[in-house]
Design goal:
This protein is an alpha+beta fold and 574 residues long. 47% of the residues lie in helices and 20% in strands.
């Protein structure tokens, strides 16, 4: 394990960052509180000033309205309030008092015309102006009628302004004290947090050096840092268990490598063995080194980092090889698998697929051709359309039958030899002959003993007989005869025969008729895919029996199936 590298102390640590962050939060909070309180106080002062202006103006309006006579006053006596001025207007909106009141000129009042107009129609007008003043206009009522209007203007008095300034100073002082206290508390909280985190960091550093026996410090408390400490403590215990489990896993992996079918080798580029499993025994020479055929590939892997080969021939065997460089060990890891049997199976499968594709090509070509002709205009000719639609139907049916045959054969190839049951051969023959209708002009005769029983599968045997009967009908020209019979042999076997009076099979083709896709030539060539007899043979193999043919060209053929005989049951078994 690498030694723990020393960490250079930074001039500014988490403690300072946390303290600054806490102080910034406190400063922002205090500033927002100051702005809120200042705005609220000033708004309250403005509201108070507005109420004073409204009250004084209404009072003057009532006083003027209660005076005897209808002559409007030219002066307003008795106004002594600091910062308050008033002007009186008659019903026409003309000023009846002096233009200058309490040292303030009426011409400097903004919005005076709108205010007076509103009052002369009976409304009260109040507006706070941008210069901090408030104007109020109310109607003068005399004997229930509007006799004029009075306009009042009020500004904060020097006494009120001084009180506002004094309150603002006190708030600033409180703000400064709050900020200082917040900074001090922030540093204290940050120190408390970082000291606990440092203890946890020291304990984690000991874990990184492999010291897993000493419990962690700083795991006391009930907060998130405590949760972190407890998690690290659990990790320490889990690491102790993990190291022990890793040793066990190493031993288990070694056992698995020994049991692998693939050869696993760790070798030097020159072929010297570092490690191998048991499967690599055939790839090691008598001198204890890798066989010469593999060494060039190890050297390539050492140069290129990774090399692969899917078909490396060594003698009469074929291997797949995957090798990659292990820089830490200056060696090469190679996995070698024997593919000889796999390739043989693949070759057989390719041949099967090739034959299937060949059989599918003709009906597909017929469908494609018919579609092109119909598109070219044959669809408009009823007779031609019916002809090509019939061809399409025939080709589609041909593809469907081929697909069904291929699937059946694939299922049979996937099934091994299974268990057998006792079946009544007579019943199976009757079911098969009823399932396949004989063409006109061909007679079917059935001959068998009533107590013939065999070991096999009822469904498979019926399918085999249906296929043999179908072939017999196809290869027998009317008038003709097909004979189906079954008998028990002395050898302990039951033989079922299907004989036809057809054209027979030439000696050169008798041995090939059970091959996949073989349809014969000459007298044997018929419509079909050459899969029926292959499927029948596989079905008989599954039942543990045999199938064969005896034929004389020009006289007919006899197909036979042999199954193990069984004792007949007292009741029907199939």
């Amino acid at each position: 394990m690498e030694p723990l590298r020393s960490v250079r102390r930074r001039p500014f640590g988490v403690r300072l960052y946390l303290a600054v962050a806490f102080a910034a939060v406190a400063l922002i909070t205090a500033g927002l509180a100051y702005l809120l309180v200042s705005d609220t106080g000033e708004r309250a002062a403005d509201d108070e000033l507005t109420q004073i202006a409204i009250g004084r103006t209404v009072e003057l309006a009532d006083e003027i309205g209660n005076r005897p006579g209808k002559d409007a006053p030219t002066t307003l006596a008795g106004i002594t309030e600091e910062g308050y001025s008033a002007w009186v207007f008659d019903q026409d909106g003309s000023l009846t008092t002096t233009r200058v009141a309490q040292g303030f000129d009426l011409t400097s009042v903004e919005g005076k015309r709108n205010a007076v107009r509103a009052s002369l129609i009976g409304s009260r007008y109040v507006e706070e102006l941008p210069d901090g003043s408030t104007i109020v206009s109310v109607p003068i009522l005399r004997e229930g009628a509007i006799d004029g209007a009075i306009l009042g203007r009020a500004v904060p008095s020097s006494q009120l302004q001084g009180a506002i300034e004094e309150s603002r100073g006190e708030r600033l002082t409180a703000l400064g004290v709050a900020v200082l206290v917040a900074i001090l508390v922030s540093f204290l909280i940050a120190s408390a947090i970082t000291s606990r985190i440092k203890r946890l960091a020291d304990s984690a550093a000991r874990i990184s050096t492999g010291e897993l026996d000493e419990p962690l410090e700083g795991a006391g408390g009930r907060d998130e840092i405590t949760d972190l400490g407890r998690a690290l403590e659990r990790m320490r215990g889990a690491l102790r268990q993990t190291f022990s489990a890793l040793r066990e896993e190493r031993d288990r992996l070694s056992a698995i490598l020994e049991a692998l079918g693939e050869a696993v080798m760790v070798v030097l580029p020159d072929g010297e063995i570092v490690f191998t499993n048991a499967a690599a025994a055939d790839l090691i020479g008598e001198d204890g080194r890798a066989i010469p055929a593999l060494v060039p590939w190890f050297r390539r892997a050492d140069r290129r980092a990774v090399v692969e080969h899917d078909a490396l021939r060594v003698g009469d065997r074929v291997y797949s090889l995957s090798a990659r460089r292990l820089p830490a060990e200056n060696a090469v890891l190679a996995v070698v698998r024997d593919r000889t049997e796999e390739l043989r199976r693949e070759l057989a499968e390719r041949e099967f697929v090739s034959n299937a594709a060949h059989e599918l090509r003709n009906p597909i070509a017929g469908i494609s051709g018919s579609v092109e002709v119909l598109r070219a205009g044959a669809k408009d000719d009823p007779e031609a359309r019916e002809h090509f639609l019939s061809r399409l139907s025939d080709d589609a049916e041909r593809i469907s039958r081929l697909t069904e045959s291929l699937l059946t054969l694939a299922r049979m190839e996937a099934v091994g030899e299974g268990g057998a049951e006792v079946l009544d051969v007579a019943i199976v023959i009757e079911e098969a002959t009823e399932a396949v209708a004989a063409p006109e002009g061909i007679d079917v005769e059935v001959e068998f003993a009533s107590d013939v029983a065999a070991q096999g599968d009822r469904v498979l045997l019926r399918q085999v007989l249906i296929g043999l009967l179908t072939n017999a009908f196809k290869n027998t020209e009317p008038p003709g005869k097909v004979l189906v019979g079954a008998e028990r042999e002395r050898s302990g076997e039951v033989t079922i025969r299907v004989h036809d009076s057809g054209s027979g099979i030439s000696p050169d083709e008798v041995d090939r008729i059970f091959e996949r896709f073989y349809r014969g030539s000459g007298s044997l060539e018929q419509e079909g895919f050459g899969l029926g007899l292959s499927i029948a043979r596989r079905m008989v193999d599954v039942m543990g029996g045999e199938i064969g043919v005896e034929s004389v060209e020009g006289e007919g053929s006899t197909f036979w199936v042999r199954l193990r005989a069984a004792q007949p049951a007292t009741t029907p078994v199939a």
